[in-house]
Amino acid sequence: MSFHLGATIVLTLSVSFFVLLLGLFINYQFRKIVIYEDFYLPHQSPIYNLSISTHLVCNSSSSHSSSNRTMEELNDVWHSMNDEELMWRASMVPQIEKYPFNRIPRVAFLFLTRGRLPLAPLWEMFFKGHEGLFSIYIHTSPDFNYEPPPSSVFYKRRIPSQAVQWGRSTMIDAERRLLANALLDISNERFILLSESCIPFFNFTTIYTYLINSDQSFLGSFDDPRKIGRGRYNKRMYPNITLSDWRKGSQWFEVHRELAVKIVSDVMYYPVFKNYCVPPCYMDEHYLPTLVNKVCPGLTSNRSITWADWSAGGSHPMTFLKKDVTEEFLKSVGSELNCSYNGKMSSICFLFGRKFHPSTLQPLLRIAPKLLGFG
What we know:
Strand order of the largest sheet: 2-1-3-5
Shape: globular
Number of helices: 13
Number of strands: 9
Structural class: alpha/beta
Largest sheet: 4 strands, mixed
Low-confidence stretches: 28-75
Mean pLDDT: 83
Strand content: 5-15%
């Protein structure tokens, strides 16, 4: 009798405990499906992230924006999308040309770096006073975690990054990642790729006006018959890419929004390059020039606006040290007389230059107010 009573009590308690657990589980699932998905899913979904959706319909840094979100939220460049989702999201183009708000076009500065920006104080001087006309995006090594102070224009401007190897497809992945992140903000109209060793040759107003008013992008794309040009073509790229399609150009480009969308949308030629353009074929020298030649040759001026000195030969341009930076030197490389701009000859050809060693910072800060016109 005692055994049956005890067994009944244990069974009753077990059933009660199971019912309690079942109720908790049902309640959790109900909250997750009904409440969580209805009200919080937009904040968590990698494709429908609220901060990204807002970038697409309003000017995220302009006082004319229709958004009521805080500046901190609008400036947040971090998201949980993988590269496939990011490229898909960035490839979307509005079908109505007229914007439903006062859109002020901006220039997106895309910094491809390994770590810190050693010339950041010069860039801070360059950007000062021009808020609302530019955006900044930084791709670094994924293990780099330094964050500049909140007062810096580079504060919280690092995008979700991955490891990059020179001469490999990961370099193009980083460039496309920068472009895609910048495209999420509909206010960005022009996109310039820069390294940590780049400097501006003119003040912000001159560069902004030059880029915004240009009717073409600035991306070099030329047929190089030498071994370091056509000699890098792989026959296995045929028929998607033929030798007559093959082009070469500088890695450091500037593109307008239409061309930027075409770059992040490419799913036909990128896999071919990734599989068959490996050292001594360098994807960063051939992929974009060839892609532009294939899909939209009329959208670029076939020249770069970032100057470098290749006179010493080799795989890398000359690096300039502190002793090299003088007013005479900067005057000699800041402009030329034989380049075309909007169909006319222009005295301004290069807006940026590289490669400037960190030791050049102090002479640059001293010269910039007088020669470059900022600070």
